[in-house]
């Protein structure tokens, strides 16, 4: 069975575009990326069903058992249908989360992990800011403890000054 | 043919539907329904385990259609064992969650959302274990994931939404990889039935088989959090509600491990990717435990040890021997129970101490000795102290590794021993800081000194007893795991159960 080039190329393009969008920080772009990726993979499954234009199932012979191209294989289409329903549900949920995130923080960017921020700050300390930190710690001994607390209890998420902005306007 | 096989999937789904129909009122009735459904699943799973061990794999043809046209559910020894332990763990966690609900009435964990989602999660987990074809397994995964998206963002607070986005995006990506693997396999073989795939993949060109194998293993490795695909896990699990985090840590990663075991024994038994798996196992162990050592939050620390212990299970699979697989199966059972217990214990620490940050905990050994016991036993178990079940599993793995030999396997044996010690170090650090050090001068405002709800303690204690039972019944249980491994290494048993009259090729 030689698959249709157009279907395969379209599927590949969709997957590539989906992966690019998945790397974005904005959740709404991410949803579009997931949908494109899903559609690309669905086309891939469709190419597995044999050449296009064959008749729907009539008798007991499918393309893998009977004469080639005689009948269209219904199983990939059933699988795609299931996958479409599942990705629609997932997309709806991610959109709801993006909305919730927007209500809570004013944008829908995926935030840096709190622990990553802590590690980044500590590695910055290692490369030269340690003296600065120690000076502050001497001035205010509760500094270290206070930082630990704000790290572990997530009071209102990450401080706004360290949140990375994607720098792209007009969203 | 057995009518019992579909019940572990059907019962929780039905219970979830009935609870939604009942609506927001009558909480006592709804709690009773949850407990009854999960207890029934446990009963069915135990019966299935006994039958699968005595009579061979139990199958059910959905709608009466024979394979490969219809969907088959198969419960062999591995599936039934996983099912039984999962059912026991979900039941205990539900008891714990009920205690927490009754005591706290927390706005952040709405009861009417938690219960149906939790039951659907259970149904998805059972479906993934029982699925006899890859696409049904995908559907089981998706059921479980959909429920887990809801559970991980329960209440929609800032921290949970932030953690949930990482989790959801990574899960969606791994689902896509799973679909790609299914598409490749279907295009190459014309079937998604695992028994039939097992027979047909052997005839495929090596390059095609490798593509499918890599895609499938990558999808499972994301779910199982095998290094380097494990980065999402310590970011997303700690902020979930305690019962949710516990059941995720215990069960969801093990479904990925189950997938890897099935793929490497039933679908691709030739073991071409053994070396890759061995290296991934070594890196998981070390990266996970090194991450755990520097953590100051108990839940994050436990999440990192989870990653490192997934390495042990992958190690056993990659050994590709009967001894290695038997040890893996035993280790999976042990780890589901112990990791869940530890997360529940972290919840109890949170309740007593008001925080899970080691910087602000202390003196719990005097103020909460019961929590101390419920943390200490599973912590020592995870660290591999004899005679607890962690020691039995690790001993089995190390002996299987030493029996095989070779430079890479020897390196893994050494890595496993080091990881075990470092795990013990991390957990002893928690013990010393939270339980044995002096109480903090300014206890966090959330610290509660009231009695712990009986149901929370009962749920934790039941899991501790279950993990001790693995030691008490160590001999028969390990023998059962060895029989399960022997069955895995003989795929024809599985094929014959699905195609009783032949015709799998």
Summary, kept brief:
The complex is a heterodimer of chains A (171) and B (505). Chain A is built from five helices and no strands.
Description of the structure:
The complex is a heterodimer of chains A (171) and B (505). Chain A folds into 2 domains: 5-105, Helix Hairpins, CATH 1.10.287; 114-162, no CATH class. Chain A has 5 helices and no strands. Chain A has helices at residues 5-22, 27-47, 74-105, 114-139, 143-153. In chain A, α1 packs antiparallel against α2 and α4 (114-139) runs antiparallel to α5 (143-153). By secondary structure, chain B is mainly α. Chain B has a domain at 273-472. Chain B has a two-stranded antiparallel ribbon. Chain B starts with 6 loop residues before the first helix and ends in a 7-residue tail after the last helix. The interface between A and B is large, with 47 and 43 residues. Chain B: The chain crosses the membrane at residues 31-50, 80-99, 119-152, 164-188, 208-232, 244-261, 273-294, 301-319, 325-349, 370-392, 412-431, 452-473. Chain B: Pfam families: Proton_antipo_M. Chain B: This is Na+/H+ antiporter subunit D. Chain B: It is a multi-pass membrane protein.
């Amino acid at each position: 069975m030689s698959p249709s080039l157009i279907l395969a190329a379209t599927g590949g393009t969709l997957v590539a575009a989906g992966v690019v969008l998945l790397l974005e920080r904005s959740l709404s772009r991410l949803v579009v990326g997931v949908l494109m990726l899903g559609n690309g993979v669905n086309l891939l499954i469709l190419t597995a069903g044999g050449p296009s234009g064959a008749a729907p199932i009539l008798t007991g012979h499918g393309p893998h058992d009977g004469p080639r191209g005689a009948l269209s294989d219904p199983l990939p289409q059933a699988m795609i249908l299931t996958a479409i329903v599942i990705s629609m549900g997932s997309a709806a949920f991610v959109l709801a989360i993006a909305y919730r995130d927007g209500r809570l923080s004013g944008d829908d960017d995926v935030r840096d992990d709190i622990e990553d921020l802590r590690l980044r700050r500590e590695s910055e300390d290692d490369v030269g800011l340690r003296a600065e930190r120690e000076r502050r710690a001497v001035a205010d001994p509760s500094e270290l403890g206070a930082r630990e607390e704000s790290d572990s209890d997530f009071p209102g998420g990450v401080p706004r000054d360290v949140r990375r902005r994607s720098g792209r306007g007009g969203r | 043919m057995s009518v019992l096989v579909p019940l572990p999937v059907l019962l929780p789904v039905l219970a979830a539907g009935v609870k939604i129909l009942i609506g927001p009122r009558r909480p006592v009735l709804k709690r009773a329904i949850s407990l009854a459904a999960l207890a029934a699943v446990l009963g069915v799973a135990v019966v299935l385990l006994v039958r699968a061990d005595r009579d061979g794999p139990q199958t059910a043809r959905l709608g009466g259609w024979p394979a490969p046209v219809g969907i088959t559910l198969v419960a062999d020894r591995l599936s039934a064992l996983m099912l039984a332990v999962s059912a026991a763990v979900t039941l205990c966690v539900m008891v714990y969650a009920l205690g927490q609900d009754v005591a706290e009435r927390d706005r952040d964990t709405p009861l009417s959302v938690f219960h149906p989602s939790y039951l659907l999660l259970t149904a998805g987990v059972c479906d993934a274990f029982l699925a006899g074809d890859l696409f049904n397994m995908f559907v089981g995964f998706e059921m479980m994931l959909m429920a887990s998206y809801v559970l991980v963002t329960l209440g929609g607070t800032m921290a949970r939404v932030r953690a949930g986005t990482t989790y959801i995006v990574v899960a969606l990506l791994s689902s896509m990889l799973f679909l790609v693997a299914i598409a490749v396999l279907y295009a190459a073989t014309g079937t998604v039935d695992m028994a039939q795939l097992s027979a047909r993949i052997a005839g495929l060109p090596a390059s095609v088989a490798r593509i499918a194998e890599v895609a499938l293993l990558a999808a499972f490795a994301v779910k199982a959090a095998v290094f380097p695909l494990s980065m999402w896990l310590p970011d997303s699990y700690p902020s979930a509600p305690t019962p949710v985090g516990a059941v995720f840590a215990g069960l969801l990663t093990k479904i990925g491990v189950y997938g890897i075991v099935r793929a490497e024994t039933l679908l691709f038994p030739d073991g071409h990717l053994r070396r890759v798996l061995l290296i991934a196992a070594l890196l998981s162990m070390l990266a996970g435990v090194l991450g755990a050592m520097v953590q100051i939050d108990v839940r994050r620390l436990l999440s990192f040890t989870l990653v490192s212990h997934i390495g042990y299970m992958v190690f056993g699979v990659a050994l590709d021997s009967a001894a290695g697989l038997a040890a893996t199966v035993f280790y999976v059972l042990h780890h589901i129970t112990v990791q869940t217990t530890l997360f529940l214990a972290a919840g109890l620490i949170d309740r007593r101490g008001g925080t899970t940050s080691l910087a602000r905990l202390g003196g719990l050994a005097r103020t909460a000795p019961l929590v101390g016991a419920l943390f200490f036993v599973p912590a020592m178990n995870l660290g591999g102290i004899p005679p607890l079940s962690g020691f039995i599993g690790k001993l089995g793995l190390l002996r299987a590794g030493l029996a095989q030999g070779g430079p890479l396997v020897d390196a893994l044996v050494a890595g496993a021993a080091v990881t075990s010690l470092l795990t013990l170090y991390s957990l002893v650090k928690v013990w010393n800081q939270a339980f044995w050090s002096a109480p903090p001068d300014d206890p966090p405002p959330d610290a509660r000194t009231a009695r712990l709800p009986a149901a929370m303690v009962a749920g934790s204690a039941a899991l501790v007893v279950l993990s001790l039972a693995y030691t008490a019944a160590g001999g028969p249980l390990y023998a059962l795991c060895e029989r399960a491994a022997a069955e895995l290494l003989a795929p024809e048993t599985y094929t014959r159960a699905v195609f009783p009259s032949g015709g799998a090729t």
